[in-house]
């Protein structure tokens, strides 16, 4: 496996995740074309691009939902193929999608422990609610999520709190290495946004989890990310760490390329 | 929005809600149904001196117990967002199986066990058809209900029979006047523990609330659903045998659908959502009490049997309108219409709770 130049990281840096020449077609439509991407341990990578550029498709490949037509995925240097979401999860990749996978009717701690409950009584599997409640409370305190009560049904929480609980459930997995967040800040108020941004920062710094974030708000991404990749027409066109590019430069670049696209569209 | 609600939103601190208020908030429909039940009891007690007597307590228990067991059987299925229309026909079929096998020379106890096993099997078929073959459970269980009715009518040739058995066993199985009530209470306690205290119960609520999310977290959704159909059919068969020994005669032409609907109605009065995701065993029992009291109370008042259905229907509607409006008034969607707003106002005064907190 030879490093493929361009988008690949410098030799010697430990990459948790690396993709080589990932491509995917939906019939005649090319969704992804030779995508090279890498993610370092504890790093937060931001994916930006216009709607339909291929960001979500890429995330869906990494999460095991789609299988690529070509290319390879390396996890800790070893090539992997994900057969399903469960499979990717067993490899330590957790995803929080836009439609949050929480059960509204259940309490916060039941959601956190769903299908991983503490039980007693052998075959009957009686719930140890008190232990779960305490553990959930401690866990949320540890990763810095502040909610009124772990007893409240998730339906009673605000959008930001629900998002935080969804993220918390994902990172509660023992073997988690990589967290994929698809627009975690969509439709959030200012206070909720800062809640999630704080959570992402503390996860990457304290828990040493590598994170990929898709978001349309560049200002937010600059608060969260260590590095930005721009995806255009199914390819990674820009790969720069925050020290190499400013917010203004990124916006200018996106606006320029958008104008070019529009002009090209008009010319046809 | 009062200051308390503001503080909870701005500060995001853990505010210790009073246990009482939290209980009422989380079990609102159950509490309202219980109040309706108490109101009905007071109403009938005032209207007739015969209502609050020990004799009538027994009669009342015999009204309530079957409703309660049907409701308890349906609650898990309803939480899952499904429905079992065949449970009433299990009720008709099970005592017939027992009687036939007894006539064929099998002792009572084994034939009871066998009949219950057959019911479980039929419940399993209900589950397979509606889950694996993806036929909506409404249709799947309706088909099974009609088929079962046909089988019983063919075998019995439409002729009623009498269940037989030894004295002791018959008493346990519903012959003794209070035995049905005791069975109902026992089943209620067991199912309540199952629903609230075990992973199985938690997973039922999870699947009913958001089946995709439940599947995501690795819960075997199909298996949970099929087990609930089996449980429902088993309870339907059990209450059939109990009632068979209680009544002492079996008419194969009895309409099982009516019994099933009493159960579903009790469950819904007690706060179980027909759309799934929510329901409690306690609520189902309260609902059965409301329904049983309506039936028994109006009979005592001398309402003619023709008018009884009318009165029952209207009372159920009234209870449910009250319940739904209160639910809406206190939910995140907010009240609809002037009645809902009035209910909302009363509720917020009673609990001193600002509405801004949940609506945001």
What does this structure look like?
The complex is a heterodimer of chains A (268) and B (360). Chain A is of the alpha/beta class. Chain A has one domain: Rossmann fold (3-Layer(aba) Sandwich), CATH 3.40.50.300. With 360 residues, chain B is an all-alpha fold. Chain B is built from 17 helices and no strands. Chains A and B meet through β8 of A and α10 and α11 of B.
Helix-strand layout with pairing:
The complex is a heterodimer of chains A (268) and B (360).
Chain A (H helix, E strand, L loop, with lengths): L14 E12 L2 E12 L3 E5 L6 H8 L7 E6 L2 E3 L4 H6 L2 E4 L11 H5 L6 E2 L5 E2 L1 H14 L16 H13 L6 E5 L7 H17 L3 E5 L3 H7 L2 E6 L2 E7 L5 H21 L1
Parallel strand pairs in A: 3-10, 3-11, 6-9, 9-10
Antiparallel strand pairs in A: 1-2, 1-4, 4-5, 7-8, 11-12
Helix pairs in contact in A: 5-6
Chain B lengths: L2 H9 L7 H8 L1 H20 L6 H26 L7 H17 L4 H25 L4 H20 L10 H9 L3 H19 L1 H11 L1 H6 L4 H27 L8 H14 L11 H20 L4 H26 L6 H15 L4 H4 L1
Helix pairs in contact in B: 3-14, 3-15, 4-9, 4-12, 4-13, 4-14, 5-6, 5-7, 5-12, 5-13, 6-7, 6-12, 8-12, 9-10, 13-14, 14-15, 15-16
